Amino acid sequence: MEPAAVQYDFLRWIVLSPLISCCVIALLGRKLPRVVTGTLASASVGLSFVFGLLGFLQLKSLSGHGEGEAVFLADSLYRWISVGGLTADVAFMLDRLSAVMVLVVAGVSCIIHVYSMGYMAHDKSYWRYFSYLNLFVFFMLLLVSADNLVLMFVGWEGVGLCSYLLIGFWFEDMEKAYAGKKAFVVNRIGDFGFLLAILLIFWNLGTVSFGGIFAQAPRVLTAGSGLATAIALLLFLGATGKSAQLPLYVWLPDAMAGPTPVSALIHAATMVTAGVYMIVRLNVLYLLSPQAMAVVAAVGALTAIYAATIGLVQDDIKKVLAYSTISQLGYMFLAVGVGAFSAGIFHLMTHAFFKALLFLGAGSVIHAMSGKQDIQEMGGLKGKLPATYWTFLAATLAISGIPPLSGFFSKDEILWSAFSSPHGHWAFWLIGWLAAGLTAFYMFRLLFLTFFGTSRADEHTRQHIHESPSLMTVPLAILAVLAVVGGFVGMPEALGGANSFHHWLAPVLASENGTLNAEAAGHFPEAVEYLMIALSVVVGLCGIGAAWWVYINRPGTAEKMADSVPLGYGLLKNKYYVDEIYNIFIVQPVKLTSIYILWKLFDAGIIDGLVNLSGRTVRGLGRVAARLENGYTQAYAITFILGVALLLGALLW
Amino acid sequence: MISLHQLLLLSAVLFVIGIAGFITRRNIIIMFMSVELMLNAANLALISFANHSGSMDAQLIALFVMALAAAEVAVGLAIIITVFRNKQTVNVDELNILKW
């Protein structure tokens, strides 16, 4: 049955509101007072959230709570492209999936905007910051509410651009400008895959609109065919770039060079989740290719554990969070890879809450530490930053999967799906389970080193430690509440919940018309599910206990452990030397080819050579012809008269 | 009555004198006068034919040509004066700044 579209005119304002604010700030920001700039920026995103909420309620009233017929809201602005068979409209759609995304993106963005007003208060490019931030939110909302792939791609590229602008926001620092460039270039590699996938889809299905794709794909593409796999894998390549998965994750740790609220917004809550959203959006295509699903799940699982191990030894507070983000995104891909799309989106949502909170908390810590980010120089901040400490603790417990916080429900659902889904495997579960333990360990290591013990900061810094203004702590508190209770919307049936999140998304997911999990649950007795839940709690507690043992009970153990396995420690400390390997095998060859073959040989030699040759030819001819132009007026006159005489002679002959 | 033949001969002689002057002299004022001479020789040829054929139109045109020549002389002399002010010379061989 075709989903029914309902026209809804407010939809465009969800997207346009931040764009208008961005234009106003970009054009007038220099003259506007800071308060006005910040308030306008935050209010515009707040407005998007309100419109999103209205749309959500409308959607809910149209379709009821259950898994009724799929209804979505649509709003078409104009026909954008119409070439041959290709048509693409600037049109938005809000179905159950994009409604969740719009609410998460606009909600978290709004909180971060408010926080930024405090964090960036003293920055000299205040207005530039807010115009970029609004532009980013515009593109992100465009991405999640577009009704066709081409428009989605515009948003996709747009967030990449804004990411570049915001990471390199403090571009006077070469290092930071370079980080922005790296993020952009690495993302381009993924985007190329995405673009190829769009072309393949258009070629074979003859349409780029989501509605058309959902209708055509099962008819045109054979399940398991090479074509379906190629499309799915190319899309996934795009997702690995944007969502920082192996092998294209390298930009995200460096992206921490941007202002901390930017890291919270882009590199935790919104942009990096675009890849997950895209795969879930196109779940129809993925289900046609079990091979691609397996690849997605494997890459996700590997990334989850890989990034978690690196996170164990990082000393920069934001770097730890960056690797943690990569690891958590790995979970989401693991979820979608095993067909548990709603679990992936659920984790995306809870992760947006607690990771944004962690980043903003880290920002508050950095603010207090006069810009220092090394956790080895922190310690003992618990008493001095109470609001930051308590909210940070809530987020850390949530990410560690301690019940009943939000992270527990979403992570547990992913692990259970990895184990029980027909696409799953016990190995996926094991990797995810180990990564969960590592997550708990490194997050509590971060917490203990930062807030517990005695201060290791120098005298000057210590005197300046102060709690952040309420513009920053209130957003922390709101996010903390969300991080604590956000999980209840997806409480599994096994624990007496309704799992309303799962049911809400079910109509937009081709696989999960109630069949997948019901089928899976049939294979395993309920006791297994309870055992799994218990195991994932236990591993989280073990991680926390280990962190407590190493960093609180026996300080100095960490150094001893590092000394006892210097090889392993060095490997982790240097992030498996991946940046170096990429440098040797990819960056340098490209660079050398560019310099010696493309530039010096081809461009300077052949292209410039041809241009110079034509120039030289003309000059040579000119030199001969210039002999006629001797500057003597009388010589010209004689030529002229002779010419006339010749013409006359010819005429009169 | 002067015949057409004689008038055309006079016109041709004047024209050739003009050419000769234009080609052989280096003084820009003399050259300018030579050009004027050629113009008037042509003008003379025109009205000679007009007189021969009894047409009034060409005689009218000759008046226009004279008016035009007067204007041209004004502009030309102004240019020559400006050139002299800048270069302190009216020798055309020395006016070669546009030569490549």
Automatic annotation (TrEMBL), chain A:
It holds the Pfam family Proton_antipo_M. NCBIfam families: NDH_I_L, PRK06590.1. Keywords: Membrane, Transmembrane, Transmembrane helix. The lineage of its organism: Bacteria, Candidatus Glassiibacteriota. It is found in: Endomembrane system; Membrane. GO terms for biological process: ATP synthesis coupled electron transport; electron transport coupled proton transport. It is a multi-pass membrane protein. The keyword Cytoplasm does not apply. This is NADH-quinone oxidoreductase subunit L. GO terms for cellular component: endomembrane system; membrane. The keyword DNA damage does not apply. InterPro entries: NADHpl_OxRdtase_5_subgr (IPR018393), ND/Mrp_TM (IPR001750), NU5C-like (IPR003945), Proton_antipo_N (IPR001516). Residues 146-439 form the NADH:quinone oxidoreductase/Mrp antiporter transmembrane domain. The chain crosses the membrane at residues 12-28, 35-57, 97-115, 127-144, 150-171, 192-214, 220-241, 262-280, 292-313, 320-346, 352-369, 389-406, 426-448, 469-491, 530-551, 635-652. Residues 80-130 form the NADH-Ubiquinone oxidoreductase (complex I) chain 5 N-terminal domain. It comes from the Bacteria. GO terms for molecular function: NADH dehydrogenase (ubiquinone) activity; NADH dehydrogenase activity.
